[in-house]
């Protein structure tokens, strides 16, 4: 082969031909409201605690990390409560990697992953990377789900793993616990409830964690990337029956979670009250957004997360670009014609409203 091959020269797996690396544009603009991060940075005190912890531990960085991440998993179990402990919790580099472990263990060649659209655009990528067939069923027109719809789709596709995202990304739609429970009563497929945004919900206590004692096929997926303000730390985790955690331990790469990652996450969990302290404010700003966007003359989908889907626009890319030209980055995702905006700080959110008002004058 020639020394500088192009992708087309390489013996790439057939299903990867023509694929592009996934990801929202990472652009250095003032107002970044495109990937549903918590806009409030850790305090100087928490940053100093992280740095001191890493400095103290660095003299042992010649050693591999704890392969089982036991201290971190205990801390995550304590944070979740509901009587969970180490054996119920698994952690990895973002819930992206947690999902890869779940699919590595329970999906793969000849097996099927089912999700309900519109939903998180990474799910088909997890499936592709684990050689899993990916199928979808549409949500109701108002983006809700009910147990009949979910169970019918499981039966139709003979699904092995089912993902219900609540609140859903990119619509913000919650799925009631009663629906989740009715689904669990009707299937032995692995049911993953992706609660990445659960802390932002109007009723965070209505979590599928409460169903764990009753259903061995239930996995609740969480992340430190959103409410916890630790997207840069890359820590996602799940809670489930111990046997499900054992299955994930079989497929994970050894030492998958670095010493730095484990330590930084442990510090963050010690400061949970502070890091989660802005969640109430983000929830209030989200609720205001549900009122302000219609006042500007656009529709918005009722949201239980830290983002809102708004539109519809004849040319959403044009609106996205005009917002970007004004220093405001939102996300082109979800149903055709709609855009998604994350809840920012009060200043960022005001800058978004001002930019959108100008753009709407231009395009309408
Ligand atoms: N699930 C959902 C529904 C998400 O929106 C995201 C992030 N956008 C994730 C999982 C993955 O988050 P992370 O890998 O940062 O934990």
TrEMBL record:
Any Pfam family matching the protein: Aminotran_1_2
Molecular function GO terms recorded: histidinol-phosphate transaminase activity; pyridoxal phosphate binding
Residues found modified as N6-(pyridoxal phosphate)lysine: 226
Keywords assigned: Amino-acid biosynthesis, Aminotransferase, Histidine biosynthesis, Pyridoxal phosphate, Transferase
GO biological process, alphabetically ordered: L-histidine biosynthetic process
Listed cofactors: pyridoxal 5'-phosphate
Keyword hit for DNA repair: no
Keyword Ribosomal protein: no
Residue span(s) of domain Aminotransferase class I/classII large: 31-354
EC number: 2.6.1.9
Pathway this chain belongs to: Amino-acid biosynthesis; L-histidine biosynthesis; L-histidine from 5-phospho-alpha-D-ribose 1-diphosphate: step 7/9
Residues that span the membrane, as ranges: none
UniProt family annotation: Belongs to the class-II pyridoxal-phosphate-dependent aminotransferase family. Histidinol-phosphate aminotransferase subfamily.
HAMAP family xrefs: HisC_aminotrans_2
Descriptive protein name: Histidinol-phosphate aminotransferase
The organism's taxonomic lineage, starting at the top: Bacteria, Bacillati, Actinomycetota, Actinomycetes, Propionibacteriales
Gene name of this polypeptide: hisC
